[in-house]
Write a structure and sequence with these properties.
With 367 residues, the chain is mostly helical. It has 16 helices and no strands. The chain is globular.
């Protein structure tokens, strides 16, 4: 394969991805620059086979950017809140993960999906983070995991706001507050990055590469996140990234995942989507129930409790928390704790579970 053909394939892929992002942005879908390129490239690569290419290094660059933004969320307020409510955070996260394990077990028994794939599809982490973890786990059907995670995300992104603004919670939509949040989010510009980004950027890259060398879980994401949090803890201000750069990072990741998806390998499509929708609804309803328990344990509003435990993206729950004047530090703290718990605790737990399962399979084989 020549360099010219590789370059042509890369351009085709880039144009397709940008087109998908633009379309999804115009449709006002959640995380348009992640889902848009993912779906556009998925369709294009299956219609025009052999004409798409996206180097893994570009995806890794996007992961580093996302990891940096996660590290920025580790503010003093979030860490303080996490420290005060650490036992409750552990309890709520474990309860939620036990439910996910139960859902995965039921799906694996009722369908032809293996337990490992069903479990990663049910884990309530961020979409890009869970897909990165799934890609690093051997024997996982990435297409099934992606479908399940995307369906869950759509259910949460649509369902949680409907719950919050329903008569049950009594919140009122404040358009002015939403506009203010949007304005604040988009205020970051390229000039604001300097000079501190000259310190953060190389350290994030070094930690990502070093973490990958020592087989650190999702190193290109967690390495920069930990490095950024540590630098901020040392008193160095981490500049917010411009919206365009964050969108570009989502495109880098979404395009890569879109090329990994193999719809032809997805057996019993109707059943897969049905289980994905059903498990997503069960997860959202259960999170609502656990949030009621949280209001009993701590003097917080029902809306704050729900947003803290909702198995959705931290950024989207944070924007909603801004809009309804919920306790943002608590929402960020719980969401962030679950994210880090999943990536530090879940991989070794999964390896232990799968090892036990393999031993059990060997033992059951006839002699």
């Amino acid at each position: 394969m020549t360099v010219d053909s590789n370059g042509f394939k890369f351009i085709v892929t880039l144009v397709t991805a940008v087109g998908g992002g633009v379309i999804f942005s115009l449709l006002h879908t959640p995380i348009p620059w992640l889902l848009g390129p993912m779906i556009a490239v998925l369709i294009g690569s299956n219609v025009w086979k052999g004409k798409y290419r996206w180097p893994g290094q570009i995806r890794n660059s996007g992961m580093i950017i996302v990891g940096y933004t996660i590290g920025l969320s580790m503010t003093g307020a979030a860490l303080k809140e996490m420290g005060h409510q650490l036992p409750t955070m552990c309890l709520m996260t474990i309860i939620l993960l036990l439910l996910c394990g139960s859902i995965a077990f039921a799906v694996s028994k009722l369908s032809d999906t293996d337990f490992k794939t069903a479990l990663l599809g049910a884990i309530p982490g961020g979409l890009s983070q869970v897909l990165a973890l799934a890609e690093e786990t051997k024997g996982v059907n990435l297409t099934v995991v992606t479908v399940t995670q995307v369906v869950r995300l759509m259910i949460i992104v649509i369902g949680i706001p409907l719950l919050v603004f329903s008569p049950i919670f009594g919140q009122v939509h404040d358009a002015a507050a939403a506009a203010a949040v949007s304005l604040t989010t988009n205020q970051a510009n390229w000039a604001d990055l300097f000079p501190n980004i000259l310190i953060f950027a190389p350290i994030c890259v070094i930690c990502a590469v070093a973490g990958n060398r020592i087989n650190f879980p999702t190193a290109y994401l967690l390495g920069p996140a930990i490095a950024t949090a540590a630098l901020q803890g040392a008193g160095l201000h981490g500049p917010a990234l411009p919206a365009g750069l964050i969108s570009a990072a989502q495109l880098m990741i979404g395009t890569y995942v879109g090329l990994l998806l193999k719809p032809g390998k997805l057996q019993r499509k109707v059943r897969t989507f049905s289980f994905a929708i059903g498990s997503g609804l069960v997860l959202m309803i259960f999170a609502w129930g656990v949030s009621e328990l949280l209001t009993v344990l701590h003097p917080v509003s029902r809306s704050t409790a729900l947003l803290s435990l909702a198995p959705g993206g931290m950024d989207q729950m944070g924007i909603l928390a801004h809009e309804i004047d919920a306790d943002l530090s608590m929402v960020s703290g719980y969401q962030l704790f679950r994210t880090f718990f999943i990536f530090f605790a879940v991989p070794p737990i999964l390896r232990l579970l799968f090892k036990i399962k393999r031993k059990g399979s060997v033992t059951e084989q006839p002699q």
